[in-house]
Design brief:
14 helices; 2 domains; mainly alpha; elongated
């Protein structure tokens, strides 16, 4: 709703300036430009404004050059279309590349309808001026009216990954504790672990949007004066730690899924019970991460430190139980070695996460 309000405000101001103040013949270019470059961050608005202005300027300038050299007949329009669409593929223009041809088409129409050379030059110049006015108003409105600071976007990405990891290990540890491991359970766990790629991409996109919201944002100055956080480096490190943790859980579920039980079942019940205790401790950590909040970060960081200490003890018990039971950790056909290795790796990631959050506080 805020973006709609700001777009409406920018469009209204642009229309008033272009129609009521300047009385231009094509005032719609200004509000259209203002709405087009209104983005979710100030940085994106500025970037899109520069690209859009460059694209339209190139298109209009091309029409002026071609028109004065060879006229404004049908063949000229074909040439304008070909050149405009070709220039629009320039990577530097990004998503605004198509506006080269669009601007050229509007400019060609204006050029063809103008009766004198001075009118042609004046009206083509007005198109660029109106686009400049619209882009300028759009950027100023986005910069001054509740400029977006997307801390919640960064937290949302962390919450999503932590919840996905927590749900998975919470389903795993009761089955491991009861030693009721079968192909159906293992296959389901592995499938869920493999389907987290989309969530990881979405979480990273949310984090990048949050980072972008800091660029050229005047609210950043206020946060600095109040001693507030001014970067997302801590959240970024936690996000990547969660991504690696998901990959490690995927590895251990793959090992379980590929495991073919032998006719003579090894005495591994105690090992899986200790591993279940470890996964339960992991689920408690992910519960806190799934509710991470900037306003409660100090308290949550202390809770995570305590939970990480408990999880570290559970990892030690897993290794001791594997040695006590004499399980074949080096046997690639059995999952025990992979489970022990991934438990230690998971613990490293969560310990790193706790350290990062403590430093962030």
């Amino acid at each position: 709703m805020l973006l709609i309000f700001k777009s409406t405000l920018a469009a209204t101001l642009a229309w008033f300036l272009s129609y009521d103040v300047l009385n231009t013949p094509s005032p719609a270019f200004a509000p259209f430009s203002a709405v087009l470059i209104m983005q979710v961050t100030v940085y994106r608005s500025l970037l899109q404004a520069l690209r859009y202005l460059a694209a339209v300027t190139v298109g209009v300038s091309m029409v002026a050059g071609v028109g004065f050299m060879i006229g404004s007949d049908l063949l000229t329009f074909v040439l304008v279309a070909v050149v405009g669409l070709t220039i629009g593929r320039w990577p530097a223009l990004g998503s605004q590349g198509s506006q080269v041809a669009t601007g050229a088409f509007f400019a060609f129409s204006t050029y063809a309808l103008a009766s004198t050379d001075s009118q042609k030059i004046t009206q083509l110049g007005q198109i660029i001026l109106l686009v400049l006015i619209g882009c300028g108003i759009g950027v100023v409105v986005n910069l001054t009216v509740a400029p977006p600071m997307r801390y919640r976007s960064a937290e949302y990405g962390l919450h999503t990954l932590a919840a996905a990891l927590g749900d998975l290990v919470s389903d795993m540890y009761p089955v491991l504790r009861d030693n009721e491991i079968d192909a159906d359970h293992c296959g389901q766990w592995h499938s869920r672990a493999e389907q987290t790629g989309g969530m990881i991409t979405q979480a990273r996109d949310s984090f990048r949007t949050a980072e972008e919201s800091l660029y050229y944002n005047p609210r950043l100055l206020l946060r600095r004066r109040r001693g507030g956080a001014v970067s997302f480096e801590g959240y970024g490190a936690v996000l990547e730690a969660l991504v690696r943790a998901l990959y490690q859980v995927s590895s251990l579920t793959r090992s379980l899924d590929q495991w073919t039980e032998q006719e003579a079942r090894l005495d591994d019940g105690a090992f899986f019970r200790s591993y279940a205790d470890f996964l339960e401790s992991v689920s408690k950590i992910t519960d806190v991460l799934a509710e991470l909040d900037e306003d409660s970060l100090t308290e949550q960081s202390r809770r995570l430190d305590g939970l990480a200490d408990d999880a570290q003890e559970r990892v030690r018990e897993v290794s001791e139980e594997a040695a006590r039971s004499g399980l074949p950790l080096a046997d690639p056909t059995r999952p025990y070695g992979v489970l022990v290795v991934e438990a230690n790796r998971l613990m490293e990631e969560f310990r790193h996460t706790c350290d990062v959050l403590r430093d962030t506080c």
